[in-house]
Amino acid sequence: MDIMSLVFGYAVVAVPYLPDDFQSLDEHDVRLIAYTASTVLGLTWLWSCLRQEGSLRERAAESLFSFARSMPYVGGKIQSELDKVLLEVGSDPAFLPKPGEVFTYRLPEKGLDESAVTQRVDDMEKVLGGADWRAGRVSGVVYSNSEALSSTLFTVYSKFAWSNPLHPDVFPSIRKMEGEVIRMVVELYNGSKNACGCVTSGGTESILMACRAYRQLGYERGIQTPEIVASISVHSAFSKACDYFKMKLVQVPVNAVTRKVDIRAMRRAINGNTVLLVGSAPQYPHGIIDDIEAIAALGVQYSVGVHVDACLGGFIIPFMKDIGVDLPPFDFRVQGVTSISVDTHKYGMAPKGSSVVMYASEDLRHRQYFVEPDWQGGIYASPSIAGSRPGGIIAACWAALMFMGYDGYVESTRTICAVSRQIASAVREIPELFIFGDPLLTVVAIGSKEFDIYRLAADMNKRGWNLNSLQFPASIHIACTLRHTADGVAESFISDLKECTAEIMKTPNAKSKGTAAIYGMASSIPDRSMVKEIAWSFLDACVK
Questions:
Q1: I need a surface site. Which of 38, 77, 114, 271 has the fewest CB within 10 A?
Q2: Is 396 exposed, middle or buried (0-12, 13-18, 19+ CB in 10 A)?
Q3: In the Cβ-directed half-sphere of 463, how many Cα atoms lie within 13 Å?
Q4: Half-sphere CA count of 227, side-chain side, radius 13 A
Q5: pLDDT tens, residue by residue, 208-246
């Protein structure tokens, strides 16, 4: 039965209960009313579909896969295969108990003294082990190699471990340090005297705060579902922001060769709901800098905000000119750039949990704030997601910037980029491998047309290297840090890369196994809801 017949049937049944004037309606009148009502209902349904999260294609695919999984035989078969993968995730050696490992299930009856606590920590480190980040065997993660800096950060943190910026009257030094961190970073990015910012817990929160600011701006303009236009290589924090704040992320392709965002596709994606365009400097997967000037020009043309995500390379790109590499403008010098995110806890060498989001004006920053003026506990105002924040991290971040200084960052940029160029040059000499785009900074992304690249990641892992696996397209990357500038580290990496590649080429058609196989399989599953379940299983295993 179609919707028209259904509405007509309801109309016929309802006629006896209508006032006398309406009971005189003939069949033609009732059908006219029915058609009108059904048209309105149909348009309302269509409008609701169009306004739901995700594209029509995504929602159609989701509905199809959901239907398939609900079918008795097919659904059972799918679930059986999924359960095997979930079991394999939970059975990963990284999550299995180690010999001698002790798990604490409840508070000790009596508190332990300092020596007992530190002994527990030492024992845990010894039993569980992990990748040897101290020897530079890990991509990214730990960016400094200075014991003097570490000692300084520990000392400064200990002075402010109990501090909380939520109480600036109690901890005025933290308030001052936060302001100075913001100003120093704003100056690095050529902000005007009106430029401002906020210290956050990391790149994700910096991006979330920026997206919230633009969402509020969109609401003020009467936009019910504000949209963000960004490339498919943009950081997933923008997807997270859209999920949290009920925005819509419109992703456009990148150039297959340069890996930069397709500017023409970005232009086509802009509409009346667009509140933000995003460019990366650089993007995480392949370390490529988008054409920020072209993106900003679109922002000016369409009166849309432009955010530059410089979280990864935030303390590399401002210093490239000092090592003889001229980059196209990427900061507040570019007309149209309205906000920038920069991680101090990466190449800024600050401890984990610190980042800065910057705005061209205080007016825009105000829109990231949360204020509750009517709370019984008093007027509550918070600049970011958290209420209480760790003042010790802010203090340590300030200490890192002061310790390093401009010349320190120039030198770290010089040495890290030299190593990344050395690795990139060596990869280009291996015929079975290729590099994505033309990386100028610290990330080298590697692919292969000859074999499953995840096999290379797995084999390098067996030799103690912890690399990042990527997808769409399948690839791996290494983010070089000061740890990789130590004597022999880059040479060892290159040697192992060559040997692993040669070994793989003995059986180039073989598929990866273990965790690498799961990653490769996950990237090929058309039903992305199943990938989410695999990810849930991984996250569950992390906290068991």
A1: 114
A2: buried
A3: 19
A4: 17
A5: 999 999 999 999 999 999 999 999 999 999 999 999 999
